[in-house]
């Protein structure tokens, strides 16, 4: 077990450069004291590990100390790195093993290829949580991905939700997939904007390149933008009663309801809360999934829709 940890420690330093003991401890899920002992063990075995004390210090390997990886092209390495992006795999037990395997590949790659993990995370983010619409089949994904990867400007023609067409020069920063719906994050003359890829009608890569903002963090930007987008929706206001045995389920699946349930006063085994959905269709779909764990109080139209859907379902199973 310690041999595996020492190997992972060495490869972390090889792939990411200087790291503090606390950062290494967090990555390897051990204490800082264990890291200190492991650093001593690596040094004793002849691995050139150096400590840089003071602010901004940490541990690093002698420059140029690495093992060359053969057999994988840059494109194949980038494809492998896609598996390690944030997304559904993070909930699986395979995630930790996959992360270790990718680390070994990246750390033993040539120096320029070893930067691929950071570049990939800056240009592609997989958001697995639910959204308000079904997936679509956008075009131009390959072209947009290549231009974002190489920081290449694009002339794009776009049709908005009102079918108004426009053309503009953009700097494609990144792609985000939200529950099978693809979005393009791009810098425009009006600042950073988000475009639904399925509404893009044409893409023309330009000869010019752009310099991206060094402080741009894709995940932070997307979480802020999507949060504001949800707030901007008019919303479909409902009053829902949640059974005591359903509080954990509802609080875990419906954003914002956990705190509402904690504040609500129980009445006969139920707690009444206000829940905002995108529209009635979304509310009906979400509520039917909860079965008898929730009960609709208002609006009346939603109560009727839930009742009618339940009767249809019951009718399907009558003998």
Salient structural properties:
alpha+beta; Arc Repressor Mutant, subunit A; SH3 type barrels; 6-stranded mixed β-sheet; 3-stranded antiparallel β-sheet
Would you kindly provide a written description of the structure presented here, covering whatever features stand out?
With 319 residues, the chain is α+β, with helices and mostly antiparallel strands. The protein has 4 domains: 2-61, Winged helix-like DNA-binding domain superfamily/Winged helix DNA-binding domain (Arc Repressor Mutant, subunit A), CATH 1.10.10.10; 74-126; 141-232, SH3 type barrels; 236-316, no CATH class. 41% of the residues lie in helices and 25% in strands. It is built from 12 helices and 11 strands. Strands 3, 4, 5, 6, 7 and 8 form a 6-stranded mixed β-sheet that branches. A 3-stranded antiparallel β-sheet has the order 10-9-11. It is flat. The chain starts with a helix and ends with a helix. The relative contact order is 0.07.
Continuous helix count = 12
Mean pLDDT: 80
User: What is the beta-strand fraction?
Assistant: 15-25%
Q: Under CATH, the topology of the largest domain is which? A: SH3 type barrels
* Shape annotation: flat
In CATH's first tier, which class of the largest domain applies?
Mainly Beta
Helix content: 40-55%
Distance between the termini: 59 Å
Report the structural category: alpha+beta
> What gyration radius follows from the Cα positions, in whole Å?
25 Å
The CATH architecture name of the largest domain reads Roll
Runs with pLDDT <50, length 5+? 67-71, 88-95
Number of strands: 11
User: What is the domain tally?
Assistant: 4
**What is the ordering of alpha helices and beta strands?**
HHHEEHHHEHEEEEEHEHHEHEH
Assembly classification: single chain
- Major sheet summary line: 6 strands, mixed
């Amino acid at each position: 077990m310690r041999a595996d940890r020492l190997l992972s420690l060495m490869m972390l330093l090889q792939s990411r450069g200087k790291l503090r003991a606390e950062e290494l401890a967090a990555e390897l899920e051990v204490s800082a004291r264990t890291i200190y002992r492991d650093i001593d063990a690596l040094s004793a075995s002849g691995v050139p590990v150096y400590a840089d004390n003071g602010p901004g210090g940490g541990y690093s390997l002698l420059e140029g100390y690495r093992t060359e990886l053969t057999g994988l092209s840059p494109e194949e390495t980038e494809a492998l790195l896609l598996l390690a992006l944030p997304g559904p795999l993070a909930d699986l037990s395979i995630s930790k093993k996959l992360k270790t395997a990718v680390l070994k590949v990246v750390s033993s790659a040539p120096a320029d290829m070893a930067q691929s993990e950071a570049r990939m995370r800056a240009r592609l983010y997989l958001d697995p949580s639910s959204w308000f619409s079904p997936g679509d089949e956008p075009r131009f994904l390959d072209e947009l991905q290549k231009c974002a990867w190489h920081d290449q400007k694009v002339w794009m023609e776009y049709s908005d939700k009102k079918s108004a067409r426009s053309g503009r020069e953009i700097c494609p920063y990144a792609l985000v997939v939200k529950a099978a719906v693809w979005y393009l994050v791009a810098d425009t003359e009006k600042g950073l904007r988000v475009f639904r890829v399925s509404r893009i009608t044409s893409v023309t890569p330009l000869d010019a390149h752009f310099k991206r903002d060094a402080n741009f963090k894709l995940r932070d930007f997307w979480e802020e933008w999507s949060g504001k987008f949800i707030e901007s929706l008019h919303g479909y206001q409902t009053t829902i009663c949640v059974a005591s045995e359903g509080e954990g389920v509802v609080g875990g699946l419906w954003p914002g309801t956990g705190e509402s349930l904690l504040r609500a006063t129980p009445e006969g085994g139920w707690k009444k809360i206000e829940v905002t959905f995108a529209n009635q269709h979304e509310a009906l779909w979400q509520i039917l999934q909860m079965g008898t764990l929730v009960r609709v109080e208002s609006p009346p139209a939603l109560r009727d829709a839930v009742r009618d859907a339940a009767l249809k379902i019951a009718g399907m199973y009558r003998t």
